[in-house]
Known about the structure:
Elements: H1 3-40, H2 46-73, H3 100-121, H4 128-149, H5 155-158, H6 167-185, H7 206-225, H8 234-266, H9 271-285, H10 294-317, H11 326-339, H12 350-378, H13 385-390, H14 392-397
Helix pairs in contact: 1-2, 1-3, 1-7, 2-3, 2-4, 3-4, 3-6, 4-6, 4-12, 6-11, 6-12, 7-8, 7-9, 8-9, 8-10, 9-10, 9-11, 10-11
Family: Belongs to the ammonia transporter channel (TC 1.A.11.2) family.
Main location: membrane
InterPro entries: Ammonium/urea_transptr, Ammonium_transpt_CS, Ammonium_transptr_marine, NH4_transpt_AmtB-like_dom
Amino acid sequence: MDLTITVAELRYALDTFFFLISGALVMWMAAGFAMLEAGLVRSKNTTEILTKNICLYAIACTTFLLVGYNIMYVDNTEGGWLPSLGTLIGTQAEGADHSLESDFFFQVVFVATAMSVVSGAVAERMKLWSFLIFSAVLTAFIYPMEGYWTWGGGFLAEAGFSDFAGSGIVHMAGASAALAGVLLLGARKGKYGKKGEIYPIPGSNMPLATLGTFILWFGWFGFNGGSQLMISDFENATAVGQIFLNTNAAAAAGAIASLLVCKTVWGKADLTMILNGALAGLVAITADPLSPSPMYALSIGIAAGALVVFSIVALDKLKIDDPVGAISVHGVCGLFGLMVVPLSNGDATFGAQLLGAAVIFAWVFGASLVVWAVLKATIGIRVTEEEELEGMDVHDCGVGAYPEFVSIK
Length: 409
């Protein structure tokens, strides 16, 4: 037997397995988003937010298989902007390092992650079916288009834009779509007073929110580590180890930074801010988890963890109601992560990073705004005041998340 062929086959199998396991870790992040959001909404909306999360994942997997992957990767012009439209995932390239199917699986869970960002931001007042229709459009078309321009070898890739695992392509894109929806949707009833007062609306279950954050933290090792794409030789295996170290360091530093900011400003350890601080560190390091030194990864996490606290407060003052802080975590800190890449990666430039961020935001926000506006003008995007007051679990799903807890009047 030819030893070279045997080694090549072994590396192919190992890299394929690495892709599949990394994708499975990212798929587990869907559970993290579901638990985080279920914990941060009120109990009367818990079943509905869980329904959104499992349905958006199913929709993303279906639409990306049918058309999204093809738009993003199959038979496209290098450096172009208009994809060659087709269906399904194409055929295996000769000499590939891993199976085509494993590549699709790894990519499809990223699409679902982008859409998961939207669900938390529009929670507690958006119609379920309007949300699900938007999920299909974003995952079939809006996300794959900017995915082609970047990871698919389109004009942003040619311009030198660098986003290792998706601070902008996944996270900021999801936040851009969420922002468009929130602006048309409006705030929850009782969130803001007529004279500018801001009234907190506490979540129903902090243990669930904390569990969700830990699940996301865990899944992020697949998100960033798997984006190295290979592990079957010394260089790539070493790189994956560095990525894991930096990813974990940034998350830890983000949590600590938000804790210290909260204690300094308000004198309290605000758990929701600490959870978002950890996620902010993860989002920021995702743009390049390989190039930074461990100390620089800690610095990125510290900056992101502090930034997210002030961003959440600022959006509240602007009356942009985001129940879970998704726009700040994934949007503001996603942009921050993109812009600090050139400080550790000599191949990246601030000009290319700014161009990429601007194009991604303009495309996803603009396209999403159009889709949300069409939905608002046709079937509507906001539930009635009565439905919002009673909770969407009863009206959309017909079952409460905690049926044993009843009020006796």
